[in-house]
Specification:
- The chain is of the alpha/beta class.
- The protein has 2 domains: 41-177 and 187-230, no CATH class; 252-364, no CATH class.
- Helix content is 41%, strand content 13%.
- The protein has helices at residues 8-12, 51-61, 77-80, 111-114, 128-144, 150-172, 190-197, 208-246, 248-251, 267-277, 321-328, 348-364; strands at 15-17, 22-26, 41-44, 70-73, 85-87, 93-94, 99-100, 257-259, 285-290, 293-298, 333-336, 342-345.
- α5 packs antiparallel against α6 (150-172) and α6 crosses α8 (208-246).
- The two termini are 45 Å apart.
- This is UPF0160 protein MYG1, mitochondrial isoform X1.
């Protein structure tokens, strides 16, 4: 298992100096503040800050070449032109010059256009967070999780984009989630929490640069938590599902039944692996241990659906114990849900027998 990331936030962002027009971070062990002349400079706009550029700043500062960088907040192009990298301002997207703005009228970049590889198919317009993630995300993940191999980095990269960065991109660019007006608004998302850190219209003696740093730390904490989850929870679960799929023909010659070594959230991984590896025939039943017994669950036709590709037999629905054993002809069977998407047996082999019989009866109809 990949080691849990710890100490990233306090190590990178523990002390603050705010000279005119820029921000710099130093470690608590140092009593000297670095100056703009001696440091790499990250440029972004001043004034009201948003989730995308604060997250982008954090991502850059996780990398060794940017960890001691000065963050310069300005809209003055003479100042921004002195920066080594500029994000969310400047009217230019040019990776060769490290210019990453997305506000231009003709800007229509998405993950699919920046990373021209199979599997990188999101068409959501990128914000500065998405741009920095697309160009530096693989490197960031590899730096934070050096034990991860290239395949793991690819999987984590896609997971973090789809479950975290894409939301930031969509909100910042005003991409609607759906066509109809929502019946309520969400105001507790990360972008909203960053927005609330900006000084209020009637606030007094609030240092906007200090508030900006709080936003960088907030977005950074969220990113590190997500990467930790992906590396230590989500990815190991995928490995268990992958192993079960690899061994499916050892369970049953049909290849339509898998047995998990232990219970993990499996549906998301199952669909992804089926799609990526063209698993044929499609899987019908998943068996896993739960509370000392073995569950047989039908694979839904799509995530979060209770409509299965193949249900357990109709005569079994709603029965349990001896009554179910008499109808099914399977000893030590425990129950089948009335909707027939899941059932249970005392033993692993018994659960496999349930799934095999369900396949046989289902294909005979």
């Amino acid at each position: 298992m990949i080691k849990y990331i710890s100490g990233i936030i306090p190590r990178l962002f523990t002390k603050l100096s705010v000279p005119p027009g820029n921000i710099t971070y130093t470690r608590t062990t140092s009593q000297k503040f670095v100056t703009m002349a001696k440091n790499v400079k990250i440029g972004t706009h001043d004034g009201t800050f948003h989730c995308d550029e604060t997250l982008a700043c954090f991502m850059l500062k996780t990398l060794p070449r940017y960890k001691d960088a000065v963050i310069v907040r300005s809209r003055n192009m003479n100042i921004l032109n002195t920066c080594d990298i500029v994000i969310d301002v400047g009217g230019e997207y040019n990776p060769s010059k490290h210019r990453y703005d997305h506000h231009m009228r003709d800007f229509n970049e998405s993950m699919s256009t920046v990373i021209k590889k199979p599997g990188y198919d999101s068409t959501i317009k990128l914000s500065s967070a998405g741009l920095i993630y697309c160009h530096f995300g693989h490197e960031i993940i590899k730096h934070l999780i050096p034990q991860a191999n290239d395949s793991d980095v690819e999987l984590i990269f896609k997971y973090i984009y789809n479950t975290f960065v894409k939301e930031v991109d969509g909100i910042d660019n005003g991409v609607p989630m759906f066509n109809e007006e929502p019946v309520y608004r969400i105001s507790t998302d990360l972008s909203s929490r960053v927005k609330f850190l900006n000084p209020a219209w009637n606030s007094k003696d609030i240092n906007v640069d200090s508030q900006f740093l709080k936003a960088v730390e907030l977005t950074g904490q969220e990113l590190v938590q997500r990467i930790n989850y992906a590396a230590n929870v989500w990815l190991p679960a995928r490995s268990i599902v992958q192993e079960a799929i690899d061994k499916r023909f050892e369970v049953d010659p049909s290849g339509e039944i898998i047995v998990l070594l232990q219970f993990v959230p499996w549906s998301q991984h199952l669909y992804a692996i089926e799609r990526e590896q063209n698993v044929q025939p499609p899987l019908k039943f998943v068996i896993f241990r739960n509370n000392g017994n073995y569950r047989v669950q039908g694979v839904p036709i799509r995530p979060n659906s209770f409509v299965c590709r193949l249900f357990l037999p109709k005569p079994w629905g709603g029965l349990c114990n001896e009554e179910l054993a008499n109808v099914s002809g399977i000893k030590d069977v425990i129950f089948v849900h009335s909707e027939r998407f899941i059932g249970s047996h005392l033993t692993r082999e018994g659960a496999i027998t349930m799934a095999r019989k369900a396949l046989e009866l289902g294909k005979a109809i």
